[in-house]
Amino acid sequence: MDKQMKKGVLDLCVLSVLSEEDCYGYQLVEKISTAIQISEGTIYPLLKRLQREGLLTSYIRESSEGPARKYYKLTPEGVAKYKKLRKKWFEFYNGVNKLLGRGDEDGQY
């Protein structure tokens, strides 16, 4: 996926995953990577920014598999932002699909 396209949707992807459950950083990378490829180096600055913006909080949880982990959780503001971005995404998605026609995922007709 084009780097600029990916950058534009990563906030939405992180908020979407966190809307379902609290996660630690590497866990977020694993979950998002099932749909689009990202790295740990991408996720941590994004998490810090979202936390600074008041969309996430974090807490430490002990782990049976090693050191304690820092988990991220949506704040009420984060939930509201997620809903707003999700709505905008589907408006954008539907508009682009109207312009593209009915091709398959590879652009074939």
Automatic annotation (TrEMBL):
Residues 14-83 form the Transcription regulator PadR N-terminal domain. Gene3D superfamilies: Winged helix-like DNA-binding domain superfamily/Winged helix DNA-binding domain. It holds the Pfam family PadR. It comes from the Bacteria. SUPFAM superfamilies: Winged helix' DNA-binding domain. This is PadR family transcriptional regulator. It comes from Kosmotoga pacifica.
